[in-house]
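R.M. (postdoc): so does anyone remember the format we settled on? I'll just put the structure tokens first.
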């Protein structure tokens, strides 16, 4: 804030709100506007819909909430609390900023939403600057505690992911397979993380020719595991506000020469990309290393997406522009590395794991991905 000569920061986006407050914000800003005010000096304050009152109070009692003061507004005119109605959100924001001496100040925001700009129109002497680009680097490098949490999640996924080999039986419903894996994830999480905030963001398999699209063909309900095919399973979990991603490609039946080559190429490309995650090297080097392997194998036409992205409080965190980003990597950054090959009529070939940037790339726990370990017979 001092570098940008700001008196306070205003957060209106769910991701930055979660990052700053340690509360997983699930409200939609257009439905239930929310605002977190973080001044250079003095206490922070959040303005929130009253439906979240008890959750925020429980988090504050546990000592996990990083916001000093909470102000709630009511969603119904019949509210018996002293909360202002939602129809007065603009006035409530203006009064809160005025009460904290910010009515004639320079404020930075992560996103200038309609509700925010409407509220600030009541205070014409405020200068508002969108500083989203300047805020993004704060999410690159992870604290040791964050790395530890994500490593714990990686260990959980690494322990459960191999069970897909038992579940992916030809003729079985793909969605039932994923449900079985989700049940295992919950059971194992309850053993490891009892009392923590754990959830499954995704446990999804795209199977057969539909896996030639990274997210399937949009008609997955009722699809069966096919004999002599491929399947790509992705597990995304969240623990105490941090996310882990892992994916594996499964060969259903003995793969022929082409599927064997595609699988091995995807694995080797990922290994090269992980090895390129070195402090001081360019961010784009991660993607470049994977592409070199894929191009040398003659499979470049089957590339559809980047080879990795930042990961942290959300699955796709900053930086999102890995192939085009030439800045030097910093020790402590975490990347989901996942180059993929997608062949119409055949399927997809992708592994996703997370790597910690340092003098040497440190791979977070992961299960085997070689074709022998990922073949279901």
């Amino acid at each position: 804030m001092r570098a940008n000569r700001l008196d306070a920061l205003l957060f209106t986006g769910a991701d930055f709100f979660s990052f700053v407050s340690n509360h997983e914000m699930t409200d939609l800003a257009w439905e239930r506007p929310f605002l977190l005010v973080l001044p250079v000096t003095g206490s922070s304050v959040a303005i929130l819909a009253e439906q979240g009152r008890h959750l925020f109070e429980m988090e504050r009692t546990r000592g996990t909430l990083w916001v000093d003061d909470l102000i709630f507004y009511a969603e119904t005119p019949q509210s018996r609390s002293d909360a202002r109605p939602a129809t007065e959100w603009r006035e409530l924001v203006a009064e809160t900023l005025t009460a904290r001496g910010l009515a004639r100040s320079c404020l930075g925001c992560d996103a200038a939403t309609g509700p925010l700009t409407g509220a600030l129109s009541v205070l014409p002497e405020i200068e508002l600057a969108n500083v989203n680009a300047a805020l993004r680097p704060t999410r690159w490098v992870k604290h040791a505690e964050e790395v530890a949490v994500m490593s714990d999640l990686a260990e959980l996924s690494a322990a459960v992911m191999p069970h897909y080999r038992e579940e992916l039986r030809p003729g079985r419903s793909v969605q039932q397979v994923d449900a079985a894996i989700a049940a295992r994830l919950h059971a194992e999480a309850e053993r490891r993380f009892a009392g923590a905030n754990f959830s499954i963001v995704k446990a999804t398999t795209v199977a057969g020719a539909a896996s030639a699209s990274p997210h399937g063909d949009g008609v997955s309900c009722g699809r069966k595991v096919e004999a002599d095919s491929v399947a790509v399973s992705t597990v995304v979990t969240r623990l105490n506000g941090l996310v882990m991603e892992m994916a594996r490609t499964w060969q259903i039946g003995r793969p022929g020469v082409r599927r064997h080559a595609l699988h091995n190429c995807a694995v080797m490309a990922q290994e090269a990309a992980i090895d390129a995650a070195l402090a001081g090297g360019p961010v784009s080097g991660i993607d470049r290393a994977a592409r070199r392997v894929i191009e040398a194998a003659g499979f470049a036409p089957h590339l559809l997406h980047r080879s990795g992205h930042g990961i942290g409080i959300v699955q796709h965190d900053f930086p999102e522009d890995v192939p085009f980003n030439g800045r030097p990597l910093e020790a402590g950054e975490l990347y989901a590395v996942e180059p993929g090959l997608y062949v119409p009529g055949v399927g997809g070939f992708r592994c996703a794991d997370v790597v910690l940037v340092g003098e040497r790339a440190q791979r977070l726990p992961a299960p085997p991905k070689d074709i022998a370990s990922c073949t279901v017979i």
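R.M.: ...and that's the designed sequence above, right after the tokens. Also worth knowing: Residues 174-192 form the longest helix (19 residues). The first strand starts at residue 8 and ends at 11.
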